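Dear support,

Our group has been running a series of protein-ligand predictions, and this particular one with manganese (II) ion is the one our PI (initials K.S.) wants archived with full inputs and outputs. We had some confusion internally about which version of the output was final, so please treat the block below as the authoritative record. The input we submitted was:
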Amino acid sequence: MSQRYRLTILPGDGTGPEVVEEAKRVVSVFNELGPITLDTTEIPCGGKFYQDTGEEWPTGSFEHCRDNSDAILVGAVGWPGARLPNGDVAGGQALLGLRSGLDLFANIRPVKLYPGVKHKVNGSFKSVWDSDSVDMVLIRENTEGLYHSLLRRSSRAAQGGEKDEPIVIEKFPGLDGEIAWDLRPISRNGSERVVRFAFELASRRKQQLNRSQKVTCVDKSNVTRGCRLFRQVFREVASEFSGIETDEAFIDAFTMWLARSPEDIDVVVLPNMFGDIATDLASVLQGGMGMAASANIGESHMLFEPVHGSSPKHSGQNKVNPIAAISSTQLLFEYLGLRNQDDSATMCAEILEKAICEHLVEGGPITYDIGGSASTSDVGKGIAERCARILRETSGI
Ligand code: IPM
Ligand code: MN
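Confirmed final output from the archive:
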């Protein structure tokens, strides 16, 4: 009997629904032919939804995500001019509110160059199949740091609370006139759990890839106290994982190494805002944002999303790359497998990975951003058909 999971889909704004449509196409192939079934519920949300209805998503959506979802898939949120009265991005409840409200503390952003995709910096086609190619995972702390206040506001709003938690600081010595400022708290517990996650992931990669793995701590501990704690915790946790190499870097130098020698990087752990910035930069090493997938993982919930955002100027044209959303679905299968010790979900993840690779290496349709001219739906259809073929071959149907 096929294992059933509850999937909640939040297509959101702009190109979000277009790429999610292709992820759904892939999911329906696995539902029909695969060893697991995803029972899906779709919830509207986002800045555009807010402009149309006055709310960021329907009442009860947060509770549905919290209580009735084994996994959540988000398209993108953010629409030009859509702001809440307090200035925050409208639609943020659906993304930031869930990151914080469901305590999704690790934001996993794999950066790997698929076969057939050109490295946007050096133009090479060396792929994840070559051991000296780009194949790394950036892990962004996802609940604190510079995002802390915004995350708290968003999750309180998502759970029906309205009030801000003001922190009063009377003055900043030496500064005059109007000041806007943000706190950047970094906690020992918050650091420890994400650093541990990074080392555990590196240990799994060591086994799967059968090669040594290094975890790099990226921070600015020469300047900020929060980062000093982050690095101290990194060293403490590292001492428990003797089989994994370690490295440490300041974020400014790291961005240079990322561009110059990405092949040397395996697993990286970073505080929230540095992770946000470094992952956009890193996406050019894998063909751009259209290829960048992510997983937001907590103790008991998980949310998957392409990293690229809603790109309003491209929306409604069926032209953006759906591979980031499809790869996010691949991560969804992978983490369902891990979390539930379900080999059939893991097998689905492997099949989807194979289908994406084959599609790219055998010249399947690709979108403009990676050198093709195909539509969003043609890419989705191509990958979905490959999944169907592999599933049929595997089960002998
Ligand atoms: C991301 C995005 C979000 C973030 C935005 C949409 C709030 O850039 O997921 O990286 O800053 O975390
Ligand atoms: Mn970002």
